[in-house]
Amino acid sequence: MKNLIIRGVSGIIFVGLLISGILYSHSSFAFLFAIVSAMAVHEFCTLVHTHKHTTFSKELAMLAGTMLFFATYGATYIYIEKPLILFIPYILLCVFIFIRELYRIEGGVMNNYAYFTLSQVYAVLPFAMLNILAAYGDNGYNYIMPLAIFIFIWSNDTGAFCVGCTIGKHKMFKRISPKKSWEGFVGGAVTAIVAGYILSLFFDVLNAWQWMGMAAVVVASGTLGDLIESCMKREIGIKDSGNIMPGHGGILDRFDSTILAIPCVIAYLYLI
Hints:
Helix content is 73%, strand content 3%. The chain is mostly helical and 272 residues long. The chain has two domains: 26-140, no CATH class; 142-272, no CATH class. Helix 2 (26-51) runs antiparallel to helix 5 and helix 3 (58-77) runs parallel beside helix 5 (109-123).
């Protein structure tokens, strides 16, 4: 009972901070997800340092991730003739990190190169791309687009849990995630698509079919993102990626679905 209360309180705080940061202003949105990006890199690097025996600088990886986020933020919202120039400091830092490995005496250079790169691509790039999603449309900062991704993920999780616990029999991916069932997947998808229709009644940035299509994309890609993180944790041999949120695990545990959903939704929106 005590664990359930702790889990509920930490979940409410998490959702409250997330929604408040997105709704309050463009600046609070950027500040929130810059912190999330840095924390995600820190958590990822801690895991690979411990279980994959990497030795690259965690601090430099976090700095690089933060620079990538703000470079994307600036390129998206600051009008300059050549916005890609904002990425030059990030590129130079990455080059420095790679050159730094040349002077390492002990082995493991290949692992350092590979996992540093993955820390940027997996733990930072999707959050940096949220800036692109928040700029969708012609009205500057559009809070509903990034918020919608989380609404769909939460709707999907709720529907999948309720249906899966009630009638879930056919396992989706037993080797990686024994609790996921196809019945739960369908229940979550229906719940998220209904949420998409409800959003269409209040926000006309997309029509009803487009909102529901976006919900379907989030469900499919978010489920894959969840499975991908579960697969990585299973290989490492851990249950949670961290313990920053009591009862919920780490940052990567909380955003595993989001990490793959963000780029997939951006691709969907620009294709339609």
